[in-house]
Amino acid sequence: MIKAILVFNNHGKPRLAKFFQHYSEDEQQQIVRETFHLVSRRDDNVCSFLEGGTLIGGSDYRLIYRHYATLYFVFCVDSSESELGILDLIQVFVETLDRCFENVCELDLIFHVDKVHFILSEIVMGGMVLETNMNEIVSRYMEQDKLEKSEAGLSAAPAKAAAAIKNIDLPTLPKDLKIPNIELPKLPSFR
Amino acid sequence: MALTLKKVKGSLDRMFDKNMQDLVRGIRNHKESESRYIAGCVEEIKSELKQDNAAIKANAVNKLIYLQMLGYDISWAAFNIIEVMSSPKFTFKRIGYFAASQSFHSETDVLMLTTNMIRKDLGSQTMYDTGVALSGLSCFITPDLARDLVNDILALMSSTRPYIRKRAVLISYKIFLAYPDALRPAFPRLKEKLEDPDQGVQSAAVNVICELARKNPKNYLSLAPIFFKLMTTSTNNWVLIKIIKLFGALTPLEPRLGKKLIEPLTNLIHSTSAMSLLYECINTVIQGMTDHSSSIQLCVQKLRILIEDADQNLKYLGLLAMSRILKSHPKAVQSHKDLILQCLDDKDESIRLRALDLLFGMVSKKNLMEIVKKLMVHVNKAEGSQYRDELLTKIIEICSQQNYQYITNFEWYVTVLVELTRTEGATRHGSLISSQILDVAIRVKTIRPFAAKQMAVLLENSHVIASQLQRNGMQEVLYAAAYVCGEFAQFIESPSSLLNAMLSHRVVSLPAHIQAIYIQNSMKLFASAVTQAEEDEDHEKVEELLKLVMGKLPAFVQSGDLEVQERASCILSMMKYASKAQGKGSKVAGDFNDLFKGELNPVAPKAQKKVPVPEGLDLDAWINDPPSSSEDDVPTTFNYKLKDNVDDFYSTKKEKMKELSPEERKKMREQRIQEQASNPNYLSSSKMANGYQEPGDDTGDLPPVTDIDISIPLHVPGMTSSDKYLRQEQDRRRRRQEERKKRRDEKERKKDKKGRKGRKKGRQVVEESPDEDIEPVHAVDIVQEEMPEGAVQTDSEDDTKKEDIYKALDIDLESPLTAQDKLPTPTHRVAKESPQKGDEEPEEKKKKRKKKEKKKKEKKTRHHHHHEKHEHPQESLLLVDEGEEPTVAASNGDDVTTPVTSQDKVNGHQDAPKEKDKEDLDFWLSPGSGTTGATAAVNGDGDAPSPKQDTPEESPAKQHRHKKKKKHEKSSKHKKHRKEREKSPEKAETGKEKTEERPSTPPLPAMTRFVDLGENEHIGIKYETRVISMQEKQIMVALVFQNNVDKQLKSIEFNVLDTLNTRLIRAPGSTSHDPVKIPFILLPSSGNEAQLLFSVVSLNMPQRLRGTVTYILKDEEGSSQHKLDFKLYLPCSAYLLTAPCNSERFTHLLSSGEVSEKSSIRVNAPDLKFSHALQKICFYLKFSVVERVDDSASLYAATIQQHHVCLLIKAVPNGISVDGKSTDSSLLSNILDEVKEIFK
After folding, report:
1. CA distances (Å), origin A51, targets A55, A70, A187, B391
2. Given this model, what pLDDT does residue B823 score?
3. Quick count: other Cβ atoms within 10 Å of Cβ A72?
4. Is residue B448 scored above 60 in pLDDT?
5. CA distance B572 to B549
6. Has residue B213 got a pLDDT over 50?
7. Whether A139 contacts chain B with CB within 8 A
8. How many CB pairs under 8 A join A and B?
9. Cβ of B200 under 8 Å from any chain A Cβ?
C-alpha cells in the first residue's frame, strides 16, 4: 500500500500532497516538512530509499523518492510494494505529466495542481496501484478533459476571454522559474 | 435560447471572480503578507459558497483544496463540498469528489448524508462519474458507507467496462477493511476476477488478494494453484511481482509449496532482465525455500552482483536482502564479509546503516574481535554524530546480543567499553556504556577483579580525561565506575589513593547524581580499606583513613544538591562516631562492613510483571467504594498537582533541565540577565572587561584553553588496549592451530604409512572445522537474572495490539458460505449477526464469529452426511458452481423467494466442494504432481493442473492411495456422526439445528417474510422489514417492485404520510411531504429491490402508514402517469432481532425480575406439528430457540431498543400454548397477537 505521495520543490514548498490515510492539516504540513528535511540533505547520487521511521507509520514503511530538476517526488510505501517497482511508478507518473502538459515544468504543477491530482487518480487509487500503462492513463485523462470542455460549451467562452484579459494585465510569467525539461535517467528495465 | 443567454450572463458575472490560478498567482505576489492575503481570499470563498450558481461554488471549492494543501483547515466547508459533489455536471462533480477525498475522513459527520448520492453516482450511465465516485470513496470510506454500498460495488465488479471493474475490485479492499463482514460473501466474486480477461482488472484483483493475504496468509493457501498458473502465464511485471511477494508470505506456511516454486523461480532468476522482478524472486526464495541450499547460493551470488553494482539503489536492496538470508544461512553471507565491510565506507548513510545491520548478524565467537576492531576504527573517523552514535550502539548491541553469547574474553569487552568512553566528538550514549559496564561487572563474576581495577584506573585518572569526558557526555561512565569500585572494593589494590581521588575537590564539578554515587561508594571503599588495615593491626592507617575522609567530606556537605548533601552529612557523622570509637581503641571495621552486607543480584526487567497474583486477590476490585462521578473533578486536579510535586521532588535537576524547551530557556536567560543588570551587587563579566581589572586576579578567570590536537593517543598507565587482546587472541589461535597441525601431521605421517588415500579429505575437513569451537579465555559464568517465585515462563510477552483492523479480516474463506454470510441488504432474511450491541468490541465480535463458524461447520458436516445418502459422490463436481450461488443471488437482489429449505440444501452441498478444494491443494502440492505441474507451466502452455481434471501424473498409484485415504477418513467421520446422533436423539441443542436436522419431520413449504403491499395491472409491490445492526431508532423496509407489463416503468416515487412515531427518512433538504425517488427504471417484466429507512420512536405498537407510489408508464405511444395507494403495516416483530441467548442467561433473565410483564395465549390448530410451529415463530417473528425439551421450548428475541421478549411454547392437545414475558406489556401482547396471526 502507498500511504502518501508528496511532491515538493527544492525549497520544501509543497506542490502536491496526497495522503491515503487521514492526517490533520497540521500533521500533513509536519510530514511534508520532515520529509523534505530528510530527503533534501541527501546527495543526488545516493540511493533513493529512506527508512521513514516514526514519521509516517513506523518501521514497515519507507520513503522512495526521485529528484527531477527542481522537484522531489516522494512516495511513502509499506513492505508490500516493490521498491524498484515504485521507483518505476514515479517515472511513469512524471512521464505521464510530461505528456499531458507537454514538457512539464514546476509552473505547471503550481498552477494546475488539480489536474495533476486527476492524473494521479488514474494511476493510484486509495493507496493501491491502479494502472501503469502510460497510454491508457493519458487517453483516459484526455477523455475526461474533453468531457469537461464539452460541458463548459458556450459558457466557457467568456471565462476564457476573461482569463486572457487577466493574463494581459499581469507581467509576463517569471522566466527564471521555468525549468529545463525533465530529463529521464536510465532505469533498470522494468516494463 | 433564453436559458443560454442567462447562462452566458451568469458566467459573465463571475468572469472576474478569482479562479484557482489567480489565487496561486495572488499568493505568489503577496510573499510578505501571505496569511493576510489568504484570509481575504477565504472570506471571498465563503461568500462565493453562499451563492446558488454551481459553477461559482465549484470554483470556490477548487480554491479551497489548494489552501488545504498549504495547511489550512477546510473542514468547515464540508457541506459545500457535498453540494458540489451532487452537481449533475461531471466537471463540478469531479472537483467535489476530489475535495472530499482530500479533506473528508471517518469522523466527518456530513458523510452520513452522502450514501444515496454516492449510490446514484456509482450507478451513473457516464463511466467517468462512476470512476470519480469510486476514486473519492476509496479515500473517505467509513464502516457505515461500506456496509450500505457494498452491494453496489459488488455489482460494479461485473460491469462491462474494465475501467469500472478494476476500480470496483480495488476499492473492495477498502470495504473489507472498514466492514469485515463483507469479506466472506464477496470473496468468490473477487476470486473470479483473478481470471478476468482484462489485464488491469486481473492486476487489481491480485493486488487486493495480496494485501489481504499479507496480513493473514494462512487463509489464502488454497489459492496457490491459481496464483501459480498466473505466475507462469502473466507477462505483466507488476502482477508477477505481487504474486511472487504473495508466495513469499505463503511458503513459510506450506513447505511443499516451496518445492513446487523453486524451479520456476530459479528459472526467472536466471532469465529475467528486470531487476525488480529478479529482486523479488530472490526475496521469495530467501523467505520460503531456505532448505534449498543451491538456490540460496544462487541468490547470494546474484545479490553480490547487486551490491557491487554502481547503482546505489541496487546496492541498498542487495544489502537488505542479504540481511534476510543471514537469518537462515549465516555461513553463506559470512563469506562476503569483505564486501560488507567495504560498504561501511560508502558515502551513502542508508547503505552504511544497512551494512551495520548485516554485521550485527554476522558475528561469531571467532570474528567478533576483528569486526568490533573495524567498527572502532569507523567510530573514530565517522563524520556526523548521528552515524557515530549509531555505530556505538551497534557495537554494544553486537557484543551484548543474546546474553553476551559471542564474547569469549570479557577482559577484552571491558577494555572496549573503556576505549569507547574516549571517543572523539559528542555522543549521547554515555549512559548506555555505563549500564553495560555495570551489567557485565555484576553478572560476570570472574571479570569483577579486572573490571574493578580498570574502573579504579579510570577514576584515578579521571582528571586527565575529565575534560574529554565532559565534552563527550561520557561522564555517565564515571557513575558505573564508582559503583563497580565500591561494590567490589575487595579487589582494589590501593583503596586509600582511590579514596583520595574519589573525594577530591574536582569531583564537585561533576553532575550531582554522580557525586552522590561517589560518596556512597567511597564509604564502601573505606569499609574495605579499614578492614584491611585492622587485619594488619595498622592503627595508624585506620586513623589516617578516617582523617582523610573526614577532611574531604565537608566540601560535599555544602553541596546544593539535596542527595549529595544528605549522603555526605550522614556519612560524616558516622565517621565522627567511628573516630570516637577508634580513640577508645575499639575496632570499627565490623560495623562498617555490616552496612554493606549481602550481594546484589541482577533482577530481570520483567520480574515485576511476573509476580504471580496471590489467590483470592482481585486487583481490579475497588478497595473503597468508588467516588461518585460528580465529585470526581475537584480531587483529580488536586491529585495531579500532588503528583507533579512528587515528580519534581524526586527527579534530579538534570532531568528538570531537559524538560525546558529552548524558548523557555531563552526566556529564563533573559530574565536572569535583567535581574543581574538591576542588581548592584552582581559583578558581570562584561563590566569587568570594559572597566577596571584588578591586577593579579587571573586565577579567577582561567585563560582560554585551546585544545591541543595530539596525534598520539593519550596513554594512561594501567589502561589496557583492546588491540592487545586481539593480538593475544590471534596468537592463541595461531598457536592452537599450529598445535593441531602438528598433531594432524603426526597423524598423517602415521596414516601415510598405511596409505595415502584419506589424506586430502582429512585436510579439508580439518580446515573447515576450527570455526565455532573456540573456548573462552576464562570460564564465564553469567549470573542469571532473578525472577520472582512462581513466575510463569512465557515465550512471547509482547502483546501487540497494533494490527487490530487486520485481525478483523482474519476470516476463514474456505468454509462454505452460510445463511449468515450475507451482505447487509438485499436478501430476504435478516442476517443473524445483526444484533450487535453498539458497545461490543471488534475482538469479541471476531471471537463470536469464529465460534459461530465452528458451529456452522459442525452443522455442515451433518448436513453433508444427510444428503450423501441419496447422492452419487461425483455429483459434488457438478455442484461446485452452486456453492457460489447464494452470494450471486443475494447481490442481484431479485431472488425474492428462495425458500429456506433450498438454501439450506445448497449449504449442505457446499461442503463437498470445500473438502474437494482441500484435497486438490494437497494433490497439487504433492510431489508426484509437482514436477508435471511445474514443467507444464514453465513450458508456457499455461495448463497447470486445474482443480477438477485429472492430469496424467507420474505416480497414479500414489495419488490413488491418497484419495482413498481421504475417503476413508470421510466415511469414518460420518459413521461417527451417525452414531452420535443415534445415541442421543433427544439431546437438547440449539433448536434451529435440531429442527432442521430431525429426519422425522417433513419439510415445511417455502417461507418468506415478504408481504404484499399493493398491486395493480402495472406494478406489484412486496415489502419486508429489516433491522439494521446498531441502529436503535431506525428500521429498513425493503420494497420489491415487480413490473407486470411489457413496458418500461420509470420515475417511480414512493411517499407515505409520516406519523408522530414513524417517519420516512428522506434525502437531506426535503420536506416531510416530498416523495422518495426510487433509483431505478423497471424494464419490462423485471423486478428490483429498493430500501428505505424509517425512523421510529417507540416500538411497542404496530404502525400502519398510508402512502402512494407514483410511476410513469412509458411505451411507443408516449408516457402516462399512474399511482398506487397502499397501507404499509409495520408490526411489532419488525423491531425484533434474533439475538443469541444461552439457557443460563435465559434463566438468569427470567429470575432477575427484569422481564416483569406476563401474558399468555392459546392457539387452536389441531393438525399443527409442534416443530413446524416452532419453525414458523422463529422465522416470522425472528425468535431463536434457547432450549427445547420434547414438546416444549423456550424462545428469545430482543428489540432494537433492547427490550427482552421471552416465550415458552408448549404443545397442548389441539394446539399450542404460548406464555410470554417481556419488559413491556403492550409490546408483548402485540407480539402474542402476531403469533396468533401466524397460525390463522
Report:
1. 9, 23, 22, 17
2. 66
3. 19
4. yes
5. 8
6. yes
7. no
8. 175
9. yes
If you write DSSP's letter for every residue of B802-844 in order, what string do you get? TTHHHHTT----SSPP-TT---SSSSSS--TT----TT--HHH
So what's the pLDDT on residue B695? 43
CB atoms within 10 A of CB A48: 24
Of B12, B105, B173, the CB nearest to A128: B173
Which chain A residues are within 8 Å of B167, Cβ to Cβ?
A: 125, 130
Contacts of A138 (CB under 8 A, 6+ apart): A96, A99, A100
Q: Is the pLDDT of residue A18 over 90?
A: yes
Alpha-carbon distance B555 to B508, whole Å? 8
Across the interface, do B69 and A158 touch by the CB < 8 Å criterion? no
Name the nearest CA neighbour of A48 among B342, B343, B348, B353. Answer: B348
Phi first, then psi, for residue B586 (nearest 5°) are -90, 165
DSSP state at residue B17: S
The closest CB to that of A130, out of B22, B102, B170, belongs to B170
Q: Classify residue B133 as exposed, middle or buried by CB count within 10 Å of its CB (0-12, 13-18, 19+).
A: buried
- Would an 8 Å CB–CB cutoff place A101 in contact with chain B? no
Q: Using the 8-state DSSP alphabet, how is residue B1157 labeled?
A: E
Does B162 touch chain A if contact means CB atoms closer than 8 Å? Answer: no
Q: Which of B198-212, B296-310, B442-456, B980-994 is least confident?
A: B980-994
Whether the Cβ atoms of residue B360 and residue B401 lie closer than 8 Å to each other: yes
Q: Which residue has the higher pLDDT, A72 or B821?
A: A72
B214, B276, B316 member nearest A82 (Cβ): B276
Question: CB distance B12–A131 less than 8 Å?
Answer: no
Q: State what percent of residues in chain B have pLDDT above 70.
A: 69
Least-confidence region, from B137-141, B962-966, B1178-1182 = B962-966
Q: Which stretch of B453-462, B690-699, B1107-1116 has the lowest confidence by average pLDDT?
A: B690-699
Asked if the Cβ–Cβ distance from A126 to B94 is below 8 Å, we say no
Chain B residues with beta carbon closer than 8 angstroms to that of A47: 312-313, 315-316, 348, 350-351
Residues 6+ apart with CB under 8 A from B827: B890, B893
- Tell me, yes or no, if A80 comes closer than 8 A to chain B by beta carbon: yes
pLDDT in the model for residue B777: 56
Q: Is the model more confident about B625 or about B647?
A: B625
B805 to chain A, any CB pair closer than 8 A? The answer is no
List the single best residue of A49, A168, A191 to mutate versus B (max B Cβ within 10 A): A49
> B19-33, B284-298, B1011-1025, B1102-1116: lowest mean pLDDT where?
B284-298
List, as ranges, residues 310-339 from B with C-beta within 8 Å of A: 311-317
> How many angstroms separate the CA atoms of B475 and B479, rounded?
7
Place of cell 417492485: B1041
d(Cα B203, Cα A123) in Å, to the nearest integer? 13
Of A46, A113, A188, the CB nearest to B347: A46
Contacts of B171 in chain A (CB under 8 A): 125-126
- Best mutation target among B1, B8, B11 (most A Cβ atoms within 10 Å) is B11
Return the sign of the alpha-carbon dihedral for residues A125, A129, A135, A136: negative
Residue B174: which of A126, A154, A162 has the nearest Cβ?
Answer: A126
Percent of chain A with pLDDT over 90: 42
Would the ipTM clear 0.85, i.e. be above it?
yes
Q: Which of B25, B311, B347 sits opposite A170 (nearest CB)?
A: B25
Number of DSSP helices (H) and strands (E) in chain A, helices first: 5, 7
Given a contact cutoff of 8 angstroms between Cβ atoms, the answer to whether B49 and B74 are in contact is no
CB contact under 8 A, A20 and B139: yes
Residue A63 bridge partners (DSSP)? A50, A76
